[in-house]
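example protein:
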Amino acid sequence: MTAIPRAAVPLDDAIDRLGLGPFQWRLLAICGLTWAADAMEVLLMGFALPGISAAFGLARGSAEATLLLSATFAGMLVGALFWGWLADQIGRRAVFLTTVSLGLIFGLLGAFAPTASLLLAARFLTGFAIGGTLPVDYAMMAEFVPTAWRGRFLVYLESFWALGTVAVAALAWWLSTVFEPAEAWRWLLGLTALPGVIGLIARFGIPDSPRSLLVRGQEVQARAALTRVARANKTALSDAPLAVPPPAPRVTPASLFTGLLRRRTVLLALVWFGLSLGYYGIFSWLPSYLRAQGLELGAVYRTSLLLALAQIPGYVLAAYLVEKVGRRATLVGYLVVSALGLGAYLFLLAGTPGAVLVTSALLSFALLGAWGALYAYTPELFPTPLRTTGMGFVSGMARLASVLSPSVGALLLTGRLDAALTLFAGCFAVAALCGWAIGVETRGRKLPETTLPENGA
């Protein structure tokens, strides 16, 4: 009697049947540790700059100081574009490991830089390395988590940014009580790089993404990756064959600007650019701004720590809303709140240190909720062969904004607070309009594989 061949199982269905379990929680912890470490690397220059300026004789607001703030972001711009494209070509795991290794090496080198010029180079290279963790980590998380939990987990991953922010603020505060500023910054850079060691070791236990493997024609390896998920979750993988998607056409970064993807890519890039310009324009200069207002250094770090803690409820609410009302509505809602001035324009009216703290905390809450929703939304809008390339491109636009933001944010130090905050509020408003104009809600939908449906959904 001839056996009837079993119907092929779509990869989304296979992952959904394996369920949510220890594998996904472990992946969240591993990627989250790296994401928190990246937050520390990205934000530490705002805390370290007073000490670096003292060590190398840099004037407040000088071109050299601004370049040091921008160097990490410039490296991330190049890194996001390069590593995102490479991960779609050779697989997620190789880039997953390489970027963390390089970030650790270059981060430590910066702590020992004997001159401002060498420190600038080290910070650029650190940014180049960690720029690759964003597109790859979010693609990995999106591609391993069951559909019903995917949005929530992507917000959970982004929430580790707040933990990194809290950690670097607390570390900077502690070091300021132990060392003089001209010495404390070296300890800050060195200690911030060390979590990368743990992250690197933990990452060796994670297989490559089965989606990426399957799209690249490696069905056996894709099944092996799913088997590891099943074993960790104590579930069974069906012995039915996996449905192999049709061969993907050769894709390049230019593919992001063809067909239905063109509109989506441009609008997403504008959202990332606008949100990043406003966020980093405010928060990269906030420690220096508070210092210029007469706060002593320890009080500046304590204030930054409180603002970082305000981010956490923003993430918690976003994790609920992306599954309750959808990714797009959550993103736009948070951006509108930011633009209308629950932080920005109330900040202008704040006349006391307590009022400044409250209004800054409200802005921190709203902006980080927007980031959480954006990170959940973006990887679901690109097909698998272009997912990390797309994430790399839009995050590259955010890094471009980050490079520009210290120059714009310097308006805070020159007393032109109203001009700076008006510009930032306008960025959030444009980002909200672009987010709504995307016109697609991805909540509860399968990840697109090789093409987008004709209706753009």
Observations:
- The domain at 11-437 is CATH 1.20.1250.20 (Growth Hormone; Chain: A;).
- Residues 161 and 226 are 29 Å apart (CA to CA).
- The chain has one domain: 11-437.
- Residues 1-5, 453-457 have pLDDT under 50 and may be disordered.
